[in-house]
Amino acid sequence: MSELTLLVLQLGFLLLLWAFIFSIVYALRSDLFGQRVRKLQPESAAAAPSPAAAFPAAAPVAAAAATAPVSRPTTPPAGDGPLRLVITSGQKAGTEFPLGRDEITIGRSSDSAIIIRDDYTSTHHARMMLWNGQWMLQDLDSTNGTFLNGARVTVPVQIPLGATIKVGATTFELRR
Fold this sequence. Notes:
Layout: H1 3-33, H2 62-67, E1 84-89, E2 96-98, E3 104-107, E4 114-115, E5 126-131, E6 134-139, E7 146-148, E8 151-152, E9 157-158, E10 164-167, E11 170-175
Parallel strand pairs: 3-4
Antiparallel strand pairs: 1-2, 1-11, 3-5, 5-6, 6-9, 7-8, 7-10, 10-11
């Protein structure tokens, strides 16, 4: 081989190596810090909205919706079922969210229905959905996992009334 050919091969491998390094750094940054958010809404204790106003209807997460089974409830929630989701520990302890028929996404992303900003919560961490009148919990391939009564959630599971849901450093309960 000529020296020119070897030089071109060396430069090609060097470029390939740098492309690989940049892709790893980008993936790590995305895992650690989440996706970039264009505008953060200030959270002020003095001007905090009511829990009902702070809980918009959850929009389906496009990436998770592609992998998750799609099902819509055909029956309303049971009369003796949960009516609210209460944060029992974490940054927003004591906050209550009324439960409707829409699915609830939990994560650091600004498009989540419940936004939790801590180091242990993924951008799109978990979702709760109403299925055949029962609330189900699904982990959205989060880094640190989603837990129901201390057990890691790997497939969608039914959430019993009063069960402890742990997402990052925050815990929730479904209550009447």
